[in-house]
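Async update (no meeting this week)

Hi team, since we skipped the sync, here's where things stand on the single-chain job. The sequence we agreed to prioritize is pasted below, unchanged from the tracker. I ran it this morning and attached the output directly underneath so nobody has to dig for it. Comments welcome in thread, and please keep replies under the output.
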Amino acid sequence: MEQLTVQKLASWFGMDLHDERLVERVATDSRDANEAGLFVPIVGARVDGHDYIEAAVEKGAIVTFWEEGRPQPDNLVVIPVKSTVEALQTAAARYLEEINPLVVAITGSNGKTSTKDMVAVVLEEKFKTHKTAGNFNSDVGLPLTVLRMPRDTEVAVLEMGMNGFGQIETLSKLAKPDVAFVTNIGESHGEQVGGRTGIAKAKLEIKAGLKADGRLIVDADEPLLSGQGYRVGYDETADGKIEVIETTFDASIFKYNGDLYELKVLGAHQIRNAAYAIACGLAFGLDHAMIQRGLDRIKLTSMRMEKQMFGEAHLINDAYNASPTSMIAAIETIKSLEGFSKRVLVLGDMYELGADEQMQHEQVGGAVTSPVTDCILVGDKAKWIADGIQDSRVNVKMVPTVEEAKALLHHYQRPDTVVLLKASRGLALERLVQ
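Output:
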């Protein structure tokens, strides 16, 4: 929020104040350091941020949005608004208009955070780039990301999440992207929008704010996205065609429209995410050498196909979250790696899958085949993965808790072994190696 005064902020909401103090930070949590900051009290299901205004002032807030009709505090500047969330979004939109960077918007059931990280690091080869921190991709998180953007930002890379209709549309209209991505269509939140067809409809709301001359980039291998925008994938008709040359634990070699690239991140799905970054880089005028330098610097958010050592074994920590699509992709990555005699999967429950959750767990089980040698299943729902495993060559063990899985995993710390951790966030499967 550089060079944004209290006076200007208030003017965006129809107030005429003569206050030239700079608003240097923004926070929605009263516990956060917020010296010379804007405090935005969010009304949640259990907590109302208005109740914590004194704590926010103690942390340095000098101005606040304040829901109309409530008694106003008298120890800071108050900007009355109908909705504090909508006011936060309005302020973000105005600040974005002032800075006027190129905007990249990214949504998708899986891969949006990895794609965001890859796009940002590639574009940093040419532009001053600002990106969503962690998964600040909601109706509150995205405007916070925008308001924390330095004024010299040339490209903003913004992740957009959803769990129902209308949310991506709101964020897209706020951001007005120059390039918008739909990385794929999975199963998460399908129960809220009526299955994968509904998910595709909700994700494609990202077009709502796309500039008239903007570019939509989508998964070429997803039939639900057929006919939409610039298509990147393995399909022969793709506009951006991917061809995998070699995959090892250390790197993947692939071609994008005939040009050779190297990616030091595991997974065929990560190759697709890298291809999205290449497509964006080319759209913004980067050449092959610049893009490869960016790919060489990629360091993904932790617990997303993160390479680690577990004793003498190689371990892939992909425990941040899971859906059937991403879990099957991670399993296929383990199966494709060369040089390992033991391939061990540690898979756990997947949540928010709706009425078809049993069938979708069983579909994951169908992907658990040789050369996978061992599969440890954790949690109540993971029993359905076991039901789907048909390959008798796979040694399957089931345990109800992460602690019991941890005891089993210690037997696999050998140099000829690769281990995958994958489950929904609620299971916190990373505790296995902590």
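Quick observations from my side:
The chain has a mean pLDDT of 94.
DSSP finds 14 helices and 19 strands in the chain.
Reply here if anything looks off.
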